[in-house]
Design goal:
By secondary structure, this protein is mainly alpha-helical. It is built from 2 helices and no strands. The two termini are 18 Å apart. The model has no long low-confidence stretch (mean pLDDT 84).
Amino acid sequence: MVRRLANARLAGGTTYDALVALTAAEHDQVLLTREERATRT
């Protein structure tokens, strides 16, 4: 997982967001957000 984040050039707070997203995906859960900036990802 660390390599995947590094390859995507993610750092800082985005790594936390990525870990949350990966955890949700691993458990077949839909990740919801009210953050408008997240809609592009």
